[in-house]
Amino acid sequence: MKFAVFGAGGVGGYLGARLADAGHDVHLVTRGEHLDALQADGLRVESIAGDTAVELPATDDPADIGPCDSVLFCVKAHDTKTAAADLEPLLEEETAVVSVQNGVDNERWLADEIGDEHVVGGVAYIFSTIGAPGVVEHTGGPARFVYGELDGRRTDRIEALDGALSASEGIDAVLADDIRVELWRKFAFICAQAGMTATTRLPVGELRETDASWEMYRRIMAEVCAVARAEGVDLSEDTVDEWLDFAHDLDPEMYSSLHYDLTHDKRLELDALHGSVVRHASDVGVDVPMNEAVNAILRPWAERNER
């Protein structure tokens, strides 16, 4: 298959390297020093699942690539609308654009630009980042990628994507029955982990040791689940307990990408996380005071970093 990875950072770079190792035609779209390093020296992945190095075509212009079977869309949520406007050269009639991003709004934002027919939902469970230009570091998480057509159909293109990912070493690939459930399920965890590590500036281990903070962590997830159910998403009643068990086993020094962006003067994905929860909650009449608090605390930082 021919893939374009739009946003070849921690998640996109990892996926691109693994697919290339499996023999697929992979093209990377990125920018800045990372692009310069990819063009000069190729992509290196340092992973707990095994290291690899690949030389792949990399560009900041999708027109250099042309139509693809699948586009793995891995940009930060705050760049979704802008980046979506650049996807046209990569598309043909059956091209799948797989959103592998944080939040539950990206698929709608993509569809507004390129049409519902191209958009596929995706969820990544991996802790990976750009360790240096041209280098992706995978430090934790199962490298599990869940994906599916938004209407739940088993189309030829989703079967082909599933086959490619399933056959790639270092990827735990899962074709979802209902990708909306998977999107909201992960969203609940992200909002808790990101919101609490960013607002307290402390890792999850210290949150676990502080009763009031750990209760807020739990309530953030419970609020997100309540909003999802009010929107008709069939989330399991065990979702919060399952995530709490998962979080209990995390490395005590684990933070979040939101914390990283906050402390490195980068744009925050706040609108796609707690800002999104507040908007969705207003639409369905659900109270979300914990998410409102996180949004209020981090909003000045989001605006400051954006400036």
From TrEMBL:
It is an enzyme of class 1 (oxidoreductase). Coiled coil: none annotated. Residues 4-151 form the Ketopantoate reductase N-terminal domain. It catalyses: (R)-pantoate + NAD(+) = 2-dehydropantoate + NADH + H(+); (R)-pantoate + NADP(+) = 2-dehydropantoate + NADPH + H(+). Pathway: Cofactor biosynthesis; coenzyme A biosynthesis. Residues 178-299 form the Ketopantoate reductase C-terminal domain. One of its GO terms (molecular function) is 2-dehydropantoate 2-reductase activity. Its EC number is 1.1.1.169. Belongs to the ketopantoate reductase family. PANTHER family: 2-DEHYDROPANTOATE 2-REDUCTASE (PTHR21708:SF26), PROBABLE 2-DEHYDROPANTOATE 2-REDUCTASE (PTHR21708). This is 2-dehydropantoate 2-reductase. It comes from Natrinema salifodinae.
